[in-house]
Amino acid sequence: MQRHAPVKPLWFCAACAYGWPCQQARAELLAEYGTGRLLGLDMADLLTEGIKKPNQ
Ligand SMILES: [Zn+2]
Predict the structure, then answer these.
(1) Greater confidence, 21 or 1?
(2) How far is Cα of residue 30 from the mean position of the Cα atoms in its chain?
(3) Cα(41) to centroid of ligand 1, in Å?
(4) Which are the contacts of 1, defined by CB distance < 8 A and separation ≥ 6?
(5) Rounded to the nearest whole angstrom, what is the distance from the C-alpha of residue 29 to the centroid of ligand 1?
(6) How far is the CA of 6 from the centre of ligand 1 (A)?
(7) Any residues with CB less than 8 A from the CB of 8 and at least 6 apart, and which?
(8) pLDDT digit string (tens) for 11-55?
(9) How far is the CA of 3 from the centre of ligand 1 (A)?
(10) Cα separations (Å) of 36 from 14, 15, 31?
(11) Ligand 1 centroid vs 2 CA: distance in angstroms?
């Protein structure tokens, strides 16, 4: 079974090809981190990485 992981730098799901995080990825992230602060910090990092433009 393929993990619902992001394909960078396009940010779609490697397993189901939806925009990442797809519904399954969100569920897995919640299961992994719980709903606490760690998830928020991790997502902030991912978002920062995600909004970087290649030409800047
Ligand atoms: Zn997925």
Answers:
(1) 21
(2) 11
(3) 21
(4) 15
(5) 12
(6) 8
(7) 49
(8) 999 999 999 999 999 998 888 777 666 556 677 777 777 777 666
(9) 8
(10) 26, 26, 11
(11) 9
DSSP state string for 8-49: TTTTEETTT-SBSS-HHHHHHHHHHHTTSHHHHHHHHHHHHH
Give the model's confidence band at 10: pLDDT under 50 very low, under 70 low, under 90 confident, else very high: very high
For residue 4, count CB atoms less than 10 angstroms from its CB and return exposed for 0-12, middle for 13-18, buried for 19 or more. Answer: buried
How many Cβ atoms sit within 10 Å of the Cβ of residue 30?
12
Please name which of 1, 48, 4 lies closest in space to residue 29, comparing C-alpha atoms: 4
pLDDT score at 29: 82
